[in-house]
Amino acid sequence: MTRPSLAALPSPPSPSSQSAIGGKAGERRPGDGPRLRALYDDHFELVGRVVRNLGVPAGEIDDVLERVFSSAAARLPDIEPGRERAFLVQAAVRWAANARRARARIREIGCDALPDVPDLGASPEEHTDSRRAAAVLDELLGAMDVDLRAVFILDEIEEMSRAEIAVVLGIPAGTVASRLRRAREDFEARLTRWKLRRTVPGGLE
Length: 205
Fold this sequence. Notes:
By secondary structure, the chain is mainly alpha-helical. The protein has helices at about 30-55, 60-75, 85-110, 130-140, 145-155, 160-170, 175-200. It folds into 2 domains: about 1-115, Rna Polymerase Sigma Factor, Chain: A (Orthogonal Bundle); about 125-205, Arc Repressor Mutant, subunit A (Orthogonal Bundle).
């Protein structure tokens, strides 16, 4: 995961320009440069983890990160102080979902030309226990609905509170609770099926 250069990100736009993700952009203000640097330094690792855990392939993570932070740079005057993390996580979820839909369309159009995805958890000789566990987690998370997956990783992996998740995703706390309950049930069911496939010959899919 490579940090995109700040020089490659757009400067906060003038009032007449349109932002990268829609809507009228705010005016330039003193301190926007240092604020962008602080936003970048403070949240890059978090956004990178979120993007990866939302299922963006390794080869596409840098591109999605650049899009997320370009969106933030373009909308910087409109982001309320203290809500930078919420903006970035919401942007990460949107761009990750866009990348997922784009891959789905590619598979529909030319699935015969795509290479098989290797089983990263193949053998103890090839991978450490931690790497195999990460591969299994990626497999299970990758099959989940993106809305459920988002609340699940923010709760279970990033260890955010439900109140924090509600803020960063811009949804009511009650919605967070219901999605989290469904996400845990979904994950547990998938984990159970995964275990069956490896303990029972010809196990259930």
